[in-house]
Design a protein that fits this description.
heterodimer, A: alpha+beta, Calcium-transporting ATPase, cytoplasmic transduction domain A, Rossmann fold, seven-stranded mixed sheet, six-stranded antiparallel sheet, 22 strands, elongated, B: 72 residues, alpha+beta, Alpha-Beta Plaits, four-stranded antiparallel sheet, 2 helices, 39% helix
Amino acid sequence: MTKKQKKMLIRIIIAAVLMVGLHFVPVDGIIRFVLYMVPYLVIGYDILKKAFKGIMNKQVFDENFLMALATIGAIAVALYENGDYTEAIAVMLFYQIGELFQSYAVGKSRRNISELMDIRPDYANVEVDGNLEQVDPDEVEIGTIIVVQPGEKIPIDGIIEVGNSTLNTSALTGESLPREAGVGDEVISGCINMTGLLKIRTTKNFGESTVSKILDLVENSSSKKSKSENFISKFAKYYTPAVCYSAMALAVIPPIIRMVIMGAPAEWGTWIYRALTFLVISCPCALVISIPLSFFAGIGGASNAGVLVKGSNYLETLSQTKYVVFDKTGTVTQGVFEVTGVHHNTMEEEKLLEYAALAECYSSHPISKSLRKAYGQVIDNSRVSDVEEVGGHGVTATIDGKIVAVGNDKLMEKLGIEYKSCHKVGTIVHVAVDGKYEGHIIISDVIKPTAKAAIKALHRAGVAKLVMLTGDAKNVAKQVADELGIDQVYSELLPGDKVEKVEELLASKGKKEKLAFVGDGINDAPVLRRADIGIAMGALGSDAAIEAADIVLMDDDPLKIAKAIKISRKCLRIVYENMYFAIGIKLICLALGAVGIANMWLAIFADVGVMVIAVLNAIRALFVKNL
Amino acid sequence: MKKTYKIEVDCANCANKMEEAAKKTAGVADATVNFMALKMIVEFDEGQDPKTVMKEVLKNCKKVEDDCEIFF
């Protein structure tokens, strides 16, 4: 508890004790009034002060004003009628208890969620003159060697220079399986070094490191407000004044009607009492606190599962996802291509691979990487010139003075070179040297082990249609789609076509159905932005993906997509529960109050009780383990 | 220019009110208050000095919610 909260608790206890104690003091009249004013002022002086200041600043309709008016009114009625001041004190007392609870619960969940994301490293070890020194990670410059001992967090992104170890990435990815890392491996900040001593050469500043980026993202996530939150803000803005005016009407109109039309006694006291009950019920706190808290908890729970959500609006959209569009490579497949065969070659296999690898030496496409890997030797860039990348087709380059074309069927057709197609499923890379066909290389990708389960889980989660987009050949795409159970495939797409296809799908779906695009973040940025919701996966260390996507899956497990959707649904269900529950109870109590069934005690429940229940319900959104 | 400030405020509704007040302050293009993270993100109009504008923002916020604080 903070100092402020402790002070409030003491005030609550004093006021409660006095209130109960005064019950046994048999005094009447003015002395009774004065005595009862003591606990009232102890518990309520700050509310009265705030209400007064609010009126001075022309901010009349806030809950302080409501509480002040309701309690002063209740005291006035008591003074006039029966001398029962307990009610006024109790209203104030319970209101303060509610506020205290709210502040405690919010503070607690704030801490809980920050603890979940407790990946911020406090220091970095730097070797100075043979001694280890702990310094602020902010002060470590790029290229410094930092030492990470077993049990410590890696503070800054870098490359291992000395040592090997097992890394625990669970704080980042939610993945409990540790990862091996050795000399030359890139490591990211936030992982915990479990076994061996590592010396790491930093490649980034602390501020640019993964851990800072993630923390930044999580901390700012609830700043993007969802429709539900905006609705509540608007609702609160109109609701409070509306209830105040109704209360005024309730206090004045029925007595006048009774007097003038029915000729009965006006019963001012009764009606004013009912109006005051109205005021107590009217406080919108339960709503205003529980909705953002639900989202905050949902986002916190999601990040604990390795799903980073950039704003509550995205959580809301995600829950309405009916279409999921996948990129193939790196999303449902490993994206690790391997050369599995060389066919129809007239020259030696090695020579053909060498040409292909050299031609692709500047490309970062996974296929190029696998070609270079298959070649297996150091690439001498100086042999290559005039590299021209033909988007979606392949590359042409001049190697050792020969014009080499490396690419798919389309490239060969474009260059007018006759090629042989392949009966094997995989990506076919044709190679032509000086316009003569020299054979093709087959590269295949491996489907991720969890991909099939992921597709099933998505279907089960009520996603209506799963679509896969790929730049790959038709037969490859179809084989993957059939094996996984994906509904629809578009193949042989150029990067620009993907945006077009997504736009087509966006146009064909219903308004309430949302479309999510899942990609690995490489070359996907435009599509990630265009879709209703962009999900980047395996994004650890990829700044572009973190930038472009709305939701970032920290590891590359496609099962997380369904998990993210389930988390969002649970969170939104809680949001709606709270919304209907709080508004419902308040409206019922208002109705009961108007006809005189609800007294002030019930009104306090409608205010404080509902808030407590809604806050507790909101915290439920944090628990996502078993979804 | 966008800047993030740490704030202190007790209730969620008050945070909403602070947001409104900050938005209406001259020199502020947009403002968001994140109650859960206790942060205020202010986007300033072109050529405004954040310090001077923030003084006004704080003044306006104090008007709607006496019990708030912005650290800048």
